[in-house]
Amino acid sequence: MTRMTSSARPLLNRRLAEFGTTIFAEMSALALSTGAINLGQGFPDTDGPEEVREAAVRALRDGLGNQYPPGPGVPELRTAVAAHQQRRYGLSYDPDREVLVTAGATEAIAASLIALLEPGDEVIAFEPYYDSYAACIAMAGGTRVPVTLRPHEGSFRLDLDELRDAVTDRTRLLLINTPHNPTGTVLTRAELAAIAELAVERDLLVVTDEVYEHLVFDDAEHVPLATFPGMRERTVTIGSAGKTFSFTGWKVGWVTGTQELVAAVRTAKQYLTYVSAGPFQYAIAEALRLPDSYFDGFRADLRRKRDLLGDGLRTAGFEVYQPQGTYFITTDITPFGEKDAHRFCRALPERCGVVAIPNSVFYDDPDAGRSQVRFTFCKRDDVLHEAAVRLRRLAS
User: Fold this and answer.
1) Half-sphere exposure (CA, 13 Å, Cβ side) for 171?
2) Rounded CA separation 353/105 (Å)
3) Three-state secondary structure along the chain?
4) Using an 8 Å Cβ cutoff, are 24 and 18 in contact?
5) Please, are residues 236 and 207 in contact by the beta-carbon 8 Å criterion?
């Protein structure tokens, strides 16, 4: 018997009414249906280090993680995360109380916001922002307040005055992402110091998404916000194995922070997935202990791919904003006499056999990024070469 529902009330929670199918699902489906090269969704088309994959196989065979792992994550991974933060950044965390393993960074973001926000709290986030930020703020009952990164001299920059003006008595939390997806901006040490001073002055919590920490190029450097004075006790730092080791399907992320902050996030997280990725946690513990040569080589390879695709995009006629980090390139389509990125991206598979993402979906005000299109370069060289060849059709 089919139960009738009231037509007076929509089925979907009103907090999520503005959200539909993600743009990544839409464009990936378009890539499949047209046979186009998918430079939209940010996943590599080759696996990460063989020794890390073999570590996962060994864990499976040895029965490690095949049953529920501990709620906070396996001790080996929590210890490896703490050691990574200490070795890389001089940040000391207790692996038993100040590290929490999550089902990727997306769950870490969701659990942090659900745990730390009350309905009506304002959250400042830099737009364009990764689409899950807006949805997670909504699910937590918060109000998002965008501060827009704007193009300036070939890249996107933060206006610190605009950030300060956005803080009100209702502001609870700053949601920071550096290196920044989708623009590729890496916040400078001076910018981070100013953010830290503001957070301390206004007594704000900070959730910082640092999943691209190992993908910074040229003269840019990644500096964790928690290293600045007064920030360790108010900052939830989020990391991820997917972007660093090219195993995005394993969904292994983590949170570091004070015992009190991590306990709050764990309270929310335990009612989301509780636990996940048991055998993969053991493999990522080994991955985090790889020598510096792995991280240096990985970064150099992605920098080369960035330049390969960037040159192809410029040749095709795009205005290219040079990314300092991540594996995304934001472009502008106005040189083609076009202004609607969504329409452009829907037509691109038929025109050129390539799929990209319209940046307008990452803004509260779509007009702010109306002519911006994002491409990913975490693909094989032959794929990037072929995409560049296909995109040249636009130049003619």
Assistant:
1) 23
2) 31
3) CCCCCCCCCCCCCHHHCCCCCCHHHHHHHHHHHHCCEECCCCCCCCCCCHHHHHHHHHHHHCCCCCCCCCCCCCHHHHHHHHHHHHHHHCCCCCCCCCEEEECHHHHHHHHHHHHHCCCCCEEEEEECCCHHHHHHHHHCCCEEEEEECEEECCEEECCHHHHHHHCCCCEEEEEEECCCCCCCCCCCHHHHHHHHHHHHHCCCEEEEECCCCCCECCCCCCCCHHHCCCCHHHEEEEEECHHHHCCHHHCCEEEECCHHHHHHHHHHHCCCCCCCCHHHHHHHHHHCCCCHHHHHHHHHHHHHHHHHHHHHHHHHCCEEECCCECCEEEEECHHHCCCCHHHHHHHHHHHHCEECEEHHHHCCCHHHHCCEEEEECCCCHHHHHHHHHHHHHHHC
4) no
5) yes
First-last CA distance in the chain: 60
* pLDDT value at 100 more than 60: yes
Dihedral over Cα of 276, 13, 174, 150: its sign: positive
Residue in 105, 100, 109, 165 with CA at minimum distance from that of residue 142: 109
What is the amino acid identity at position 35? Answer: G
pLDDT given for residue 2 in this prediction: 54
Question: Can you read off the two tokens belonging to residue 8?
Answer: 């007076």
**216-248 tens-digit pLDDT:** 999 999 999 999 999 999 999 999 999 999 999
Which amino acid, one-letter code, is at 292? Answer: D
- Residue 396 reports pLDDT greater than 80: no
d(CA 212, CA 204): 24
pLDDT tens column, 127-173: 999 889 999 999 999 999 999 999 988 899 999 999 999 999 999 99
